[in-house]
Specification:
The protein is of the alpha+beta class. It has helices spanning 9-14, 40-53, 105-110, 162-166, 181-184; strands at 22-23, 65-66, 80-81, 85-93, 99-101, 118-123, 126-133, 143-147, 153-157, 173-177. The chain has a 7-stranded mixed barrel. A two-stranded antiparallel sheet has the order 1-2. The N and C termini lie far apart (43 Å).
Length: 188
Amino acid sequence: MIGPDNGLLNLACATVGGAQQAFALENENWIIPHEGETFHARDIFSPFAAAYASGQLKLEEFGQELNLEDLKQYLIPLTDITEKEIKGEVLYVDNFGNCQTNISPEELKEKNFKVGDTLSLKIENQELTSKWCSNYQNTTGGVGVVTDSWGMISIFLSNGDASKLLNCKDGSKVTIKAESLTKRLNLK
């Protein structure tokens, strides 16, 4: 992954097992000369990415190897998992009103949930049921949860804005009861 040392890449790295090495982008042969300091994506990141992807540049040729412990960190709040529930929070609300949480699909699977199960959710003080869907269209309407493009659980509203319906915002508390309603009510 190529980008700035602002802490955000550690989120992406964490989804694939963590960073193994990091290098400064210092090789002048691959930096486009520029006046200002505002277009690093164009002037620095893109040339390095293209050169590396095409095999013209090896990682070790980027620049000085960096100590992973010295990189800036952006920390995701941890979930609180008990025998009876998974407590998390909304990390952000996207432009469609989908509410990405810090809850991973692996945490749901550890509680024996699977795609298709009906879940009992609590968002702030609102209790509701929701289906764990394989995609944003795979619900009969209403609120669903899905594994989003970041690999995390997002709460969505079919053809609507979940954040408005649920009065959800960054930091809103989300609780999923550890027993699926599908199993409890024998809906299968």
